[in-house]
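Protein: Zinc finger AN1 and C2H2 domain-containing stress-associated protein 13
Species: Cardamine amara subsp. amara
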Amino acid sequence: MGTPEFPDLGKHCSVDYCKQIDFLPFTCDRCLQVFCLDHRSYMKHDCPKGNRGDVTVVICPLCAKGVRLNPDEDPNITWEKHVNTDCDPSNYEKAVKKKKCPVPRCRELLTFSNTIKCRDCSIDHCLKHRFGPDHSCSGPKKPESSFSFMGFLSTNSKEAPASSSSSSSSSRWSSLLASAEASFSRLGNDISQKLQFASGSDDNSEKRQERNGKQNKVTVDVCPKCSKGFRDSKDLLKHIDKDHRGTSKA
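Structure follows.
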């Protein structure tokens, strides 16, 4: 086997009727034997462990789930384990029954790529019936009107009979109306007080500005000869003594 220079080069095929020398042999990853190019596959050399890497999945007819068969285990045992532990018949309709377009006579299945939800009715439709006129859209739901206290009073006052036989019902309505009037009058008083406070604060700010303006006024004394102004009279006298030698017309 090999050559004189490379005696370990190449190996014989492990198949009995072949025994061909191959300089680039293949080693089976299951039985770990050496084979030539023609017998490298599991089927060609009848590998006893060739089916261990196969993945066989059987769909359960009860729950529509996939059951993986173990090569080292009897399929009947694997099936019994699934039925006793993981099988759920209620999942069959969810897995098998596919959602369709709700438009009559439309048999289009709704998948991830062809499903459009209507903005108005919030119902899924196919691409063909995605617009409102195509699926007779009912439009958006009308929001419920909010409760109005004054509307409640007006409607109930109209519905109340003019002459009530029961004095308790009339007294209850009168007390309710009186409490409503009192609350509205209290609200009006609060608003008027806030307006008066705001106007009073504006008047005070104007008076404060006038007072500050009066305080900021400065008297200036003018020299009778050179008409130079001085804020302090002492500075004016010093100026006259120094610059005009103590003589002035004033």
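Remarks: The chain has a mean pLDDT of 76.
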